[in-house]
Specification:
By secondary structure, this protein is of the alpha/beta class. The protein has a single domain, classed as 3-Layer(aba) Sandwich (Rossmann fold), CATH 3.40.50.
């Protein structure tokens, strides 16, 4: 799913600072990094970005933190999740006006939701 979303964003002219996450083996590379370095790198990516797209089907403390941080900076956030998964109520129940939470059934559905999110941002 990550590869599909990164590919779509790249082909649409968007810069994706976290594109390397779609590569296999990235978890092993990050395990050797200093936690402070990873924190500062990821926070800087959010600061420099116009928006955040998160796949939240699998719970992650880090992704939850990133979502909250992006919203605190008034960055639009799209949270995508597989329709058959239960996600955190801290995400699904968050009324923040810049947060969109969208279920998808397959890769095409996720890309469609992402297109709609980007289109709404460009209209607003």
């Amino acid at each position: 799913m990550y590869q599909t979303l990164v590919q779509f964003l790249g082909q649409s002219g968007h810069e994706v600072p976290t594109a390397h996450i779609a590569d296999t083996g990235v978890e092993e590379m990050d395990q050797n990094e200093d936690p402070g370095d990873i924190f500062h790198r990821d926070v800087n990516w959010i600061k420099e970005s116009d928006l955040l797209v998160a796949e939240v089907s699998t719970p992650s403390h880090g992704v939850g933190y990133e979502i909250g941080y992006a919203l605190s900076l008034d960055k639009p956030v799209l949270c995508l999740y597989q329709r058959d998964r239960k996600i955190s109520k801290m995400i699904s129940g968050n009324p923040h006006p810049l947060l969109a939470v969208q279920a998808y059934q397959n890769q095409q559905g996720a890309v469609k939701a992402l297109k709609r999110f980007l289109s709404q941002l460009s209209e607003g």
